């Protein structure tokens, strides 16, 4: 049976539910992890709407709870297992409640073992490669009462099942997956194992999706991939074409790998007026020795050359990064190199992470484990430096006028993705809609945001 037939069958079951209970069945989706998961949750939400479900305001009251999960660090997994544990008691009082788990976590065999041993109350499990199977699995669970599981190790042929892809968690901004998977195998990273090899979507499909979003009121798009710079059909070319789509005002993308960042792309960021002058360029470490152990494919010198090149080509560019502290074998000397790199690159912001061992990755076999207290102490020093740089960057905006895309009636983002809280003198708050671009005069700041007045 085809997926859409399963959608219709579940819808019929939902109609039966309605006849019995005088209400539609309800669902609650919670998303963990990256923007790619956020986007996929929008699609899963659309599928559930098509199958006759309504969104529930709370997890407790929902007839179906779906967790779209992340496994990039142990902390995320622990949190999700905690939530699954508490659903156990809810299932005792609501035996018909359906608990579904999908995304990156179930792709790890260790997670499946743990679920089989201790989380027998989970009804539906599927991974990252087959989210389109959800209607089939839900139908199986509803009709047999048995757990429905489907975990694949590579992608199903991409079927654009989601014609009724109507869900927008935000009205004015959307993420668009341009490629799945990752071929880089950084030593610490689980992603290539849970999301498979790189697979690029066709330019025409991506442009059609963005055009439909633009017609639906979306003003800002974020092109998503684990390493957008290795997009098979030419990333610079893709951006140039997205730049031509009417009504799209801002283009962002994530994530760029420093080893593949081309001059062509730098020129494209510079020349396409809709492309935000912001680059998130994960450095991970500033020590060439650790970068090599991480299998990152560049040195500290190469990374800094790249940031210098970017800054001279695009003087107003905002650079942000990801950094891991406490990778096995990291010495104080290595860590000082990281601090030095952060200073020299002068990042406007950084996501900082404590190294988390992921079984199955090459780094999991390394034996020079950094004691937790040492890693934490380095982490705190790094955060202090990153915050002080961020504050200085923010102070430079004071007195200037910046274009802010509103996310709400009182806050929004600059082109460089800096958060701005604004007051409104001339305009009524109610006149501001998400997606409006406002001219804001910056009058103050904190480490994590700017404060201003709409001019
Ligand atoms: N431990 C800590 N941080 C990690 N990241 C990826 N894998 C790990 C890990 N095992 C971080 C990297 C990446 C970001 C998405 O998560 O910095 O860029
Ligand atoms: Fe988490 Fe990586 Fe999966 Fe995104 S792709 S949800 S960051 S494990």
Give a nutshell description of this structure.
The chain is an alpha/beta fold and 455 residues long.
Description:
The chain has 455 residues and is of the alpha/beta class. It is built from 13 helices and 19 strands. It is globular and about 65 Å long. The structure holds 5'-deoxyadenosine (5AD) and iron/sulfur cluster. The site of iron/sulfur cluster has 12 residues, from α2 and α6. 5'-deoxyadenosine (5AD) binds next to β13.
List the helices and strands and how they pair.
Elements: H1 3-21, E1 26-31, H2 35-50, E2 54-55, E3 64-69, H3 74-93, E4 98-103, H4 109-118, E5 124-126, H5 134-144, E6 148-150, E7 173-177, E8 179-180, H6 191-195, E9 199-200, H7 203-215, E10 220-224, H8 235-242, E11 250-254, H9 263-271, E12 278-280, H10 288-293, H11 300-313, E13 318-325, H12 332-345, E14 349-354, H13 372-395, E15 401-406, E16 411-414, E17 419-424, E18 437-445, E19 450-454
Parallel strand pairs: 1-2, 1-3, 3-4, 4-5, 5-6, 7-10, 10-11, 12-13, 13-14, 17-19
Antiparallel strand pairs: 8-9, 15-16, 15-18, 16-17, 18-19
The structure holds 5'-deoxyadenosine and iron/sulfur cluster.
5'-deoxyadenosine is lined by residues 72-73, 188-189, 282, 284, 322, 324, 353, 355-356, 358.
Computed over alpha carbons, the radius of gyration is 23 Å
Helix content: 25-40%
Low-confidence stretches: none
Protein structure class: alpha/beta
Distance between the termini: 58 Å
Which shape, going by the Cα principal axes? globular
Biggest β-sheet: strands ordered side by side in the sheet: 2-1-3-4-5-6
List the bound ligands: 5'-deoxyadenosine, iron/sulfur cluster
Number of strands: 19
Please tell me the overall pLDDT.
Answer: 94
β-strand percent reads: 15-25%
Largest sheet: 6 strands, parallel
Number of helices: 13
């Amino acid at each position: 049976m085809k997926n859409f037939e399963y959608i219709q069958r579940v819808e019929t079951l939902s109609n039966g539910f309605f006849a019995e209970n005088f209400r539609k069945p309800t669902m609650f989706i919670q998303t963990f992890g990256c923007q790619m998961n956020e986007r996929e949750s929008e699609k899963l939400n659309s599928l559930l709407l098509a199958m006759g479900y309504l969104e529930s305001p709370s997890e407790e009251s929902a007839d179906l709870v779906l967790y779209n999960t992340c496994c990039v660090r142990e902390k995320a997994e622990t949190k999700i297992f905690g939530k699954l544990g508490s659903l156990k008691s809810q299932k005792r009082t609501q035996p018909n409640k359906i608990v579904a788990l999908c995304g990156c976590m179930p792709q790890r065999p260790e997670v499946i073992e743990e679920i089989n041993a201790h989380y027998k109350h989970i009804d539906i499990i599927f991974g990252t490669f087959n989210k389109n199977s959800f209607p089939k699995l839900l139908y199986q669970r509803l009709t047999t009462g048995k757990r429905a599981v489907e975990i694949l190790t590579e992608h199903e042929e991409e079927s654009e099942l989601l014609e009724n892809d109507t869900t927008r968690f935000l009205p004015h901004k959307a993420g668009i997956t341009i490629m799945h998977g990752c071929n880089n195998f950084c030593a610490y990273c689980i992603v290539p194992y849970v999301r498979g090899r790189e697979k690029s979507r066709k330019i025409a499909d991506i442009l059609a999706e963005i055009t439909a979003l633009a017609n639906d009121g979306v003003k800002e798009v974020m092109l998503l991939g684990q390493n957008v710079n290795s997009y098979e059909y030419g990333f610079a070319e893709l951006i140039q074409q997205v730049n031509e789509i009417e009504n799209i005002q801002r283009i962002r993308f994530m994530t760029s790998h420093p080893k593949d960042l081309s001059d062509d792309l730098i020129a494209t960021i510079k020349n396409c007026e809709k492309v935000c002058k912001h680059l998130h360029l994960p450095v991970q470490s500033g020590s060439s020795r650790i970068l090599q152990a991480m299998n990152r494919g560049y040195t500290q010198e190469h990374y800094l050359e790249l940031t210098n090149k970017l800054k001279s080509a695009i003087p107003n560019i905002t650079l942000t990064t990801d950094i891991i502290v406490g990778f096995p074998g990291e010495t104080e000397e290595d860590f000082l190199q990281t601090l030095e790199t952060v200073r020299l690159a002068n990042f406007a912001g950084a996501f900082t992470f404590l190294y988390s061992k992921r079984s199955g990755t090459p780094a999991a076999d390394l034996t020079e484990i950094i004691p937790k207290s040492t890693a934490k102490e380095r982490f705190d020093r790094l955060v202090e430096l990153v915050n002080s740089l961020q504050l200085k960057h923010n102070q430079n905006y004071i007195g200037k006028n910046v274009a802010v895309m509103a996310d709400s009636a009182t806050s929004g983002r600059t082109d460089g993705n800096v958060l701005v809280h604004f007051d409104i003198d001339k305009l009524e708050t109610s006149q501001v809609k998400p997606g409006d671009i406002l001219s804001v005069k910056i009058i103050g700041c904190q480490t994590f945001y700017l404060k201003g007045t709409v001019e």
